[in-house]
Design brief:
The protein has 214 residues and is an alpha/beta fold. It is 45% helix and 12% strand.
Length: 214
Protein backbone atom coordinates (compact mmCIF):
# COMPACT_ATOMS: atom_id res chain seq x y z
CA UNK A 1 0.00 0.00 0.00
CA UNK A 2 1.09 3.56 -0.72
CA UNK A 3 -0.48 5.52 2.13
CA UNK A 4 0.56 8.90 0.74
CA UNK A 5 1.16 11.87 2.97
CA UNK A 6 -2.10 13.76 2.61
CA UNK A 7 -3.87 14.56 5.85
CA UNK A 8 -7.28 13.47 4.52
CA UNK A 9 -6.04 9.86 4.49
CA UNK A 10 -4.92 9.81 8.13
CA UNK A 11 -8.23 8.34 9.33
CA UNK A 12 -7.66 5.29 7.11
CA UNK A 13 -4.31 4.34 8.62
CA UNK A 14 -5.78 2.04 11.23
CA UNK A 15 -7.47 0.04 8.43
CA UNK A 16 -4.24 -0.71 6.60
CA UNK A 17 -1.42 -0.62 9.13
CA UNK A 18 -0.99 -4.02 10.74
CA UNK A 19 1.81 -6.10 12.20
CA UNK A 20 1.74 -8.19 9.01
CA UNK A 21 3.93 -5.85 7.04
CA UNK A 22 7.19 -3.98 6.52
CA UNK A 23 7.01 -0.20 6.15
CA UNK A 24 9.27 2.11 4.15
CA UNK A 25 9.16 5.76 5.20
CA UNK A 26 10.58 8.17 2.61
CA UNK A 27 11.95 11.65 3.12
CA UNK A 28 13.76 14.21 0.97
CA UNK A 29 17.43 14.36 2.00
CA UNK A 30 17.66 17.93 0.69
CA UNK A 31 15.51 18.98 3.63
CA UNK A 32 17.89 17.52 6.25
CA UNK A 33 21.30 18.64 5.00
CA UNK A 34 23.13 21.27 7.04
CA UNK A 35 22.39 23.96 4.43
CA UNK A 36 18.61 23.41 4.58
CA UNK A 37 16.39 26.06 6.12
CA UNK A 38 15.90 25.38 9.87
CA UNK A 39 12.10 25.47 9.56
CA UNK A 40 12.21 23.02 6.68
CA UNK A 41 14.46 20.65 8.62
CA UNK A 42 12.17 20.77 11.62
CA UNK A 43 9.11 20.18 9.43
CA UNK A 44 10.75 17.15 7.82
CA UNK A 45 11.74 15.68 11.19
CA UNK A 46 8.25 16.29 12.56
CA UNK A 47 6.75 14.46 9.60
CA UNK A 48 9.13 11.51 10.08
CA UNK A 49 8.28 11.35 13.77
CA UNK A 50 4.57 11.35 12.93
CA UNK A 51 4.86 8.44 10.51
CA UNK A 52 7.06 6.34 12.77
CA UNK A 53 4.69 6.89 15.69
CA UNK A 54 1.67 5.98 13.54
CA UNK A 55 3.27 2.70 12.45
CA UNK A 56 4.35 1.96 16.02
CA UNK A 57 0.95 2.80 17.46
CA UNK A 58 -0.91 0.64 14.95
CA UNK A 59 1.43 -2.37 14.95
CA UNK A 60 3.04 -2.70 18.39
CA UNK A 61 1.67 -4.63 21.32
CA UNK A 62 -0.25 -7.12 19.17
CA UNK A 63 0.27 -10.59 20.58
CA UNK A 64 3.01 -9.27 22.85
CA UNK A 65 5.24 -8.33 19.93
CA UNK A 66 7.02 -5.13 19.06
CA UNK A 67 6.10 -2.96 16.13
CA UNK A 68 6.47 -3.89 12.48
CA UNK A 69 9.85 -3.25 10.81
CA UNK A 70 10.41 0.26 9.44
CA UNK A 71 12.99 1.38 6.87
CA UNK A 72 13.87 5.07 6.57
CA UNK A 73 14.73 5.97 2.98
CA UNK A 74 16.26 9.31 1.96
CA UNK A 75 15.54 10.31 -1.63
CA UNK A 76 17.40 12.59 -4.10
CA UNK A 77 20.81 11.04 -3.63
CA UNK A 78 21.62 12.44 -7.08
CA UNK A 79 21.44 15.91 -5.47
CA UNK A 80 22.81 14.92 -2.05
CA UNK A 81 25.55 12.48 -3.09
CA UNK A 82 28.30 12.94 -0.50
CA UNK A 83 29.17 10.44 2.19
CA UNK A 84 29.64 13.32 4.61
CA UNK A 85 26.04 14.47 4.14
CA UNK A 86 24.74 10.92 4.51
CA UNK A 87 26.61 10.39 7.77
CA UNK A 88 25.44 13.77 9.08
CA UNK A 89 21.81 12.93 8.26
CA UNK A 90 22.20 9.52 9.90
CA UNK A 91 23.60 11.17 13.05
CA UNK A 92 20.74 13.69 13.03
CA UNK A 93 18.13 10.92 12.80
CA UNK A 94 19.72 9.09 15.71
CA UNK A 95 19.89 12.26 17.79
CA UNK A 96 16.23 13.01 17.11
CA UNK A 97 14.73 9.53 17.40
CA UNK A 98 17.32 7.25 19.01
CA UNK A 99 15.55 7.31 22.37
CA UNK A 100 12.11 6.38 21.02
CA UNK A 101 10.61 2.86 21.21
CA UNK A 102 9.96 2.69 17.48
CA UNK A 103 13.57 3.56 16.64
CA UNK A 104 15.02 1.03 19.06
CA UNK A 105 12.62 -1.78 18.22
CA UNK A 106 11.51 -1.30 14.63
CA UNK A 107 13.80 0.92 12.54
CA UNK A 108 16.10 -1.23 10.40
CA UNK A 109 19.62 0.17 9.94
CA UNK A 110 21.48 0.16 6.65
CA UNK A 111 24.32 -2.15 7.68
CA UNK A 112 26.12 -1.93 4.33
CA UNK A 113 26.02 1.83 3.93
CA UNK A 114 28.86 3.82 2.42
CA UNK A 115 30.69 5.82 5.10
CA UNK A 116 33.99 7.67 5.22
CA UNK A 117 35.80 4.58 6.51
CA UNK A 118 34.37 2.42 3.71
CA UNK A 119 31.34 0.28 4.54
CA UNK A 120 29.40 0.82 7.74
CA UNK A 121 26.10 1.50 9.46
CA UNK A 122 23.67 4.27 8.52
CA UNK A 123 20.27 4.78 10.11
CA UNK A 124 18.66 5.27 6.72
CA UNK A 125 19.03 4.22 3.09
CA UNK A 126 20.15 7.06 0.79
CA UNK A 127 18.62 6.26 -2.61
CA UNK A 128 18.64 7.65 -6.14
CA UNK A 129 15.18 7.06 -7.61
CA UNK A 130 16.43 7.82 -11.12
CA UNK A 131 18.69 4.74 -11.19
CA UNK A 132 16.28 2.03 -10.03
CA UNK A 133 18.08 -1.21 -9.28
CA UNK A 134 21.32 0.22 -10.66
CA UNK A 135 21.56 2.01 -7.31
CA UNK A 136 23.13 -0.43 -4.86
CA UNK A 137 21.30 1.21 -1.95
CA UNK A 138 17.92 0.50 -3.56
CA UNK A 139 19.05 -3.12 -3.88
CA UNK A 140 19.95 -2.99 -0.17
CA UNK A 141 16.45 -1.72 0.62
CA UNK A 142 14.93 -4.65 -1.27
CA UNK A 143 17.29 -7.11 0.43
CA UNK A 144 16.52 -5.73 3.89
CA UNK A 145 12.76 -5.90 3.29
CA UNK A 146 13.11 -9.52 2.17
CA UNK A 147 15.20 -10.37 5.23
CA UNK A 148 12.65 -8.70 7.52
CA UNK A 149 9.78 -10.68 6.03
CA UNK A 150 11.70 -13.95 6.15
CA UNK A 151 12.40 -13.36 9.83
CA UNK A 152 8.75 -12.89 10.77
CA UNK A 153 6.77 -15.66 12.44
CA UNK A 154 3.61 -14.90 10.48
CA UNK A 155 4.99 -16.20 7.17
CA UNK A 156 5.37 -19.64 8.77
CA UNK A 157 1.98 -19.64 10.44
CA UNK A 158 -0.33 -22.31 9.06
CA UNK A 159 -3.80 -21.23 8.00
CA UNK A 160 -6.62 -23.28 6.45
CA UNK A 161 -6.75 -23.50 2.66
CA UNK A 162 -10.35 -22.35 2.89
CA UNK A 163 -9.16 -19.01 4.28
CA UNK A 164 -6.87 -18.58 1.29
CA UNK A 165 -9.76 -19.45 -1.01
CA UNK A 166 -11.82 -16.66 0.57
CA UNK A 167 -8.99 -14.16 0.03
CA UNK A 168 -8.58 -15.25 -3.61
CA UNK A 169 -12.32 -14.94 -4.21
CA UNK A 170 -12.44 -11.47 -2.67
CA UNK A 171 -9.54 -10.29 -4.82
CA UNK A 172 -11.17 -11.79 -7.93
CA UNK A 173 -14.39 -9.89 -7.16
CA UNK A 174 -12.54 -6.56 -7.72
CA UNK A 175 -14.56 -5.10 -4.82
CA UNK A 176 -12.80 -2.45 -2.73
CA UNK A 177 -14.91 -3.10 0.36
CA UNK A 178 -17.41 -5.74 1.47
CA UNK A 179 -19.97 -5.83 4.25
CA UNK A 180 -19.49 -8.43 6.96
CA UNK A 181 -22.62 -10.37 5.94
CA UNK A 182 -21.24 -10.66 2.40
CA UNK A 183 -17.86 -11.80 3.71
CA UNK A 184 -19.65 -14.48 5.75
CA UNK A 185 -21.57 -15.60 2.67
CA UNK A 186 -18.36 -15.78 0.67
CA UNK A 187 -16.72 -17.69 3.52
CA UNK A 188 -19.60 -20.19 3.62
CA UNK A 189 -19.31 -20.73 -0.14
CA UNK A 190 -15.62 -21.58 0.33
CA UNK A 191 -16.19 -24.08 3.13
CA UNK A 192 -15.94 -22.12 6.38
CA UNK A 193 -18.37 -22.95 9.17
CA UNK A 194 -18.49 -26.68 8.56
CA UNK A 195 -16.54 -27.54 11.70
CA UNK A 196 -19.02 -28.30 14.51
CA UNK A 197 -16.60 -26.80 17.04
CA UNK A 198 -16.75 -23.27 15.61
CA UNK A 199 -19.56 -21.34 13.95
CA UNK A 200 -19.32 -19.68 10.55
CA UNK A 201 -19.47 -16.25 12.18
CA UNK A 202 -16.71 -17.04 14.67
CA UNK A 203 -14.42 -18.61 12.08
CA UNK A 204 -14.94 -15.69 9.72
CA UNK A 205 -14.01 -13.29 12.50
CA UNK A 206 -10.96 -15.41 13.35
CA UNK A 207 -9.87 -15.22 9.70
CA UNK A 208 -10.35 -11.45 9.62
CA UNK A 209 -8.41 -11.03 12.88
CA UNK A 210 -5.54 -13.01 11.41
CA UNK A 211 -5.49 -10.89 8.26
CA UNK A 212 -5.42 -7.69 10.30
CA UNK A 213 -2.46 -8.91 12.34
CA UNK A 214 -4.30 -9.35 15.63
Amino acid sequence: WDLGGQEQFYALHILFLSRLGVYACFFDMRRLVASAQPDDRRSCLTFLRFWMQIVWGCTSGMGGRGGAPVLLCGTHKDEVPTVEDHEAISDLLYEEFGGTPVFNSSVQPHREGTVKSGSGLLWFFPIDNTKGQDDKDIVSVMKTIQECVQGEDYIRKKVPFTWMAVIDAFQASKEQTMELKDVEKLAADKGLGKDPVISLEDETQLMLDHLSGE
